[in-house]
Design a protein that fits this description.
By secondary structure, this protein is mostly helical. The chain is built from four helices and three strands, in the order βααββαα. The chain has a single domain, classed as Multidrug-efflux Transporter Regulator, Chain: A, Domain 2, CATH 1.10.1660. The chain has a three-stranded antiparallel beta sheet with strand order 1-3-2. A hairpin with a 5-residue loop joins strand 2 and strand 3.
């Protein structure tokens, strides 16, 4: 199973996603064409910007490819796993909020 380190940001450029997913940009762009669920936004310069949701989907695709699944097989699994992926994204957001609150509490405690 691949290990992914995802920095804490709201949006990621394709170069950052390449480093996170450890796949070439051309592969990521190809997957965008193959999987309708992948729809990165574009900024005013036309550069792709990815969200946490996009990265979770890319991680899922990569892991399944590493396990030998075909693109068609991954598409079928994605349909079945959409709720699980949404849950992971929501959980990640909740953990980020908890972390911010803990950091705020730590700063408050340091003042005393």
């Amino acid at each position: 199973m691949a290990k992914f380190i995802v920095p804490e940001k709201r949006f990621y450029k394709i170069g950052e996603v390449v480093k996170i997913i450890k796949e070439p940009a051309s592969t990521i762009r190809f997957w965008e064409k193959e999987f309708s669920i992948l729809k990165p936004l574009k900024n005013s310069k036309g550069q792709r910007i990815y969200t946490d949701k996009d990265i979770e989907i890319l991680k899922f695709i990569k892991e399944k490819r590493e396990n030998g699944l075909t693109l068609e097989g991954i598409k079928k699994e994605l349909k079945n796993k959409r709720n699980e992926i949404k849950h992971k994204i929501n959980l990640k957001q909740e953990l980020k909020e908890i972390k911010k609150e803990l950091e705020r509490l730590l700063q408050a405690l340091k003042r005393f």
